[in-house]
Design brief:
By secondary structure, the protein is an all-alpha fold. It is globular.
């Protein structure tokens, strides 16, 4: 709703700034609640803003081949886990966790500048001049007098009344809890088992496995083979069941 009322670019810029500041504030934390507020709450809000705006930009620019682009975008989680696991390990070992988080915050500040390059896909529409002309004509005729009143609200919870959406949200939350729990507890459990430095290597291979899984399963979903036709609903259920089994 904020993207529709204001702009996708502004949302991405604010989200990148919030992420960088949250990581910077976490580096100066002395108490647990400070880490929870900065890294757990503020960083989560900024990450959500950046992630959702990127999804919106992908949907604007890629209409026909959006599924293929979504496969490439989903690889980012695995590649990010692989890269930042080793990067954080090297930074914390070299300069300590405070300066390491400050270095990460400097990297996250690049999201602030990347968001400035977000432009609406309508700017590159072949009939852009005709669209702008129609908008100017409508303004002259006074059709946009109630434009502010017709804007969508910031918080719209009417869709939550749908039973199907409630089931989807419940399944998504449970599957996300099962998918991200190993990422959080994998290294502490590996260290407790006496693996030591190999825990970082194991998490690196986990990120590579997530990348390979995104590519493989995405190709299965996108492919339209006449010999093997499987409903996407069953594929989704199979993936969730596989997460639970792992």
């Amino acid at each position: 709703a904020f993207c529709r009322r204001k702009s996708t670019r502004l949302t991405a810029v604010v989200g990148g700034l919030v992420m960088a500041l949250a990581m910077l504030f976490a580096s100066f934390a002395n108490e647990l609640h400070q880490v929870v507020i900065s890294y757990g709450f503020m960083f989560g809000i900024g990450c959500g803003m950046v992630r959702e705006t990127s999804v919106l930009m992908v949907s604007q620019y890629f209409k026909r081949k959006r599924q293929n682009v979504e496969i490439i975008a989903s690889m980012g989680a695995g590649l990010g886990l692989t890269m930042f696991t080793n990067l954080l390990n090297e930074l914390i070992t070299a300069v300590g966790w405070r300066h390491g988080l400050q270095a990460i915050s400097a990297m996250l500040a690049s999201l602030f500048f990347i968001g400035m390059f977000y432009r609406s896909a309508s700017l590159y529409h072949p009939q852009r001049r005709a669209i702008l002309h129609l908008k100017d004509m409508s303004k002259k005729k006074g059709k946009d007098k109630n434009k502010i009143e017709n804007k969508p609200p910031y918080f719209d919870f009417t869709t939550l009344r749908l039973k199907s959406l409630q089931v989807i949200l419940l399944c998504t939350s449970l599957s996300s809890f099962g998918a991200y729990s190993p990422i959080i507890y994998f290294v502490p459990m590996a260290v407790a088992e006496g693996l030591g430095d190999r825990a970082i290597m194991l998490q690196t291979f986990m990120g590579l496995g997530m990348t390979a899984g995104s590519i493989g399963f995405g190709c299965i979903v996108v492919s339209r083979s006449k010999q093997c036709v499987i409903s996407r609903q069953y594929l989704l259920q199979t993936s969730i069941f596989g997460i639970g089994e792992n």
